[in-house]
Design brief:
72% of the residues lie in helices and 0% in strands. It contains five helices and no strands. The longest helix is centred in the N-terminal third of the chain and has 17 residues. It is globular and about 30 Å long. The model has no long low-confidence stretch (mean pLDDT 82).
Length: 90
């Protein structure tokens, strides 16, 4: 959870979004195979989902710019967790 806080605080993210991202990360990490994915991109994929859910209106491109990371990798991280989220209707 320290990594999530450190990563998201570097982008000046609202504390409530950080807490929701941590909560979902805990559920996701137990249910998906992380092989081949950096946890940063999974975290930002979850963060993107949390932003969409909370009407924070951040696009993947905006998130990539906020954290100076590759947009494609964040998209891949999101796609990796999307099936899990829809299966459990989170």
């Amino acid at each position: 959870f320290k990594k999530i806080e450190k990563l998201l605080l570097s982008g000046n993210v609202d504390k409530s979004l950080i807490e929701e991202t941590k909560r979902l990360y805990e559920k996701v990490i137990q249910s998906i195979n992380m092989q081949g994915r950096r946890s940063d991109f999974i975290i930002l994929g979850i963060f993107y989902y949390v932003c969409r859910k909370s009407q924070s209106a951040k696009t993947i491109k905006q998130i990539a710019l906020m954290f100076k990371l590759d947009e494609r990798e964040i998209k891949k991280g999101f796609n990796k967790i999307k099936e899990f989220l829809s299966y459990f209707r989170i």
